[in-house]
Amino acid sequence: MSTNTRSTNAQPVAVITGASQGIGAALVAAYRKLGHAVVATSRGITPSDDAGVLAVPGDIADPATAERVVSAAVERFGRVDTLVNNAGLFVAKPFTDYTPADYAAVTGVNLTGFFHLTQLAVGQMLGQGGGHVVNITTSLVDNADARVPSVLASLTKGGLQSATKSLAVEYATRGIRVNAVSPGTIRTPMHAPETHEYLAGLHPVGRMGEIGDIVDAVLYLENAPFVTGEILHVDGGMSAGH
Fold it and tell me: How many alpha carbons fall within 13 Å on the CB side of residue 70?
């Protein structure tokens, strides 16, 4: 069970972004197994046959999407107990090759989307007496790698990591926990199979992570009432060094 404050007969509700595939889709299934209702959002998400899953399509970079997601959660299920900010864009380019469009796209999803949705979700959680936010970052924030030029990831996900600690402290006495999971490279549809051997070599353990590794980390945080402000590295040793 989630540790959020709620009436004993209220079903907990999780909001998950980037929920149509990969880690996001696996998180939807995991939270349903926990007994949560889920509001799942992404640009390409389709309606679910499961009455406990409400799909809300939209571009998370658009503030109107955040409003629709939280409004839909409250209207359909009555509350928001957990928000997992899983949606993210990663564009690896030499710094001087980034275009204005790259900058707008990455900051739109990774920062603007996080800001508006989290602000609305936290507002709802305050009225309920508690909640939990989990942000998905990247271990490149802690340990830059010359083989993976990724300033926009560091700029945006680094901001998310700092915001995690700031929010955790700000809301620590009001029942809202805020944590982050910091992955290495995970075997998802984002990565073509021909890149897997190279990507595996970026990790000290010599392999990529699996989707289940990140899901397990999020669920640990969900069920850890004394843990807030934590950056949980699930990265095969990347954050430790090379």
Answer: 21
